[in-house]
Amino acid sequence: MSKKLLLTLFLGITLYSLPALSQSPVNVVRVKYDGGGDWYGNRTTFVNIFEFMRSNTNVVTAEREITLSISDKDFFRYPIAYIAGHGNVKFSDTEVSRLRQYLTSGGFLWADDDYGMDIHFRREMKKVFPEGEWVELPFSHPIYHINDNFPNGLPKVHKHDGGPPRGLALFHEGRMVVFYSFNTDISDGCEDMNVHETSPEVHRSALKMGTNILLWALLH
Question: What are the structural domains of the chain?
Fold first, then answer.
C-alpha cells in the first residue's frame, strides 16, 4: 500500500473521529492583527492550497480561509490559524492570553514571514510563550514528508536575505504549537503564478509544502 493511500485512510479515520472537523470542510483562520503590518496579503494563497488539497488528497476543504482577530468569539472554532505579513505585528494583552489558550488547548499556528515580519512576530510570540525557544526542525521531521517529500526541508521561493529557508517551531509540553516558515515565503509561492511571476515548478513545490503543513497540523 502506498504512503499516500495510507495517509488518505489515516486522514479519513482521524477526521471522522473528530466532530469539529467531520461536520464541515477543513478551514484555516487568518489572523487579523494590529501594528500596521499587512495581515491581508497573499489573497489567493489558500484558494490555491485548498484546491490543491481537494485534488490531491481526500480532505474536504473550504473554498478559502476565514479572517478573524484573535479576540473574536469564533476564533477557537478553527484548529489551524495562519499569520503572515511584511511589517509590524502587535497583539493586545487579551490577544496574548487568548492565543496562548488557543495553542495550549490543541490549536496550531502557521506563521509565514513575507519578509519584514520576523523581528515583530518573534517579539509578540515571546509574550505568548515567554518560556519558549524557537527550535529549527531537522529535515527528517515528518512535516517535510507527510504527503510530499522535501528531503532538504522548506523549498526556497524568494531570495530575501539569501541563505537557506528555515523551518522553526515552538513546542509546548512536547507538541509543536507553532510552525514558522522563515526566509522563503511559501505564501507567495502558493499565490496565482502571475502575482509574483512564479515559475510552475516553484508554485507546485509551495503548494505541496503548504499541504504538508496543513495535513501535519490536522493530525497533531
Answer: 3-219 (3.40.50.12140)
Q: Where are the alpha helices (DSSP H) in the chain?
A: 3-17, 19-22, 45-56, 93-104, 118-128, 186-190, 193-196, 200-219
Q: How far apart are CA 34 and CA 164, in angstroms?
A: 30
Q: What pTM was estimated for this model as a whole?
A: 0.90
d(CA 170, CA 185): 19
> Among 144, 131, 133, which residue's Cα sits nearest to residue 184?
144
Backbone angles phi, psi at 46, to 5 degrees: -80, -25
Neighbours of 205 (CB within 10 A): 21
> How far is it, in rounded angstroms, from Cα 41 to Cα 218?
24
**Tens-level pLDDT at each residue, the chain (220 residues):** 345 544 544 454 344 333 334 458 999 999 999 999 999 999 999 999 999 999 999 899 999 999 999 999 999 999 999 999 999 999 999 999 999 999 999 999 999 999 999 999 999 999 999 999 999 999 999 999 999 999 999 999 988 788 899 999 999 999 999 999 999 999 999 999 998 889 999 999 999 999 999 999 999 9
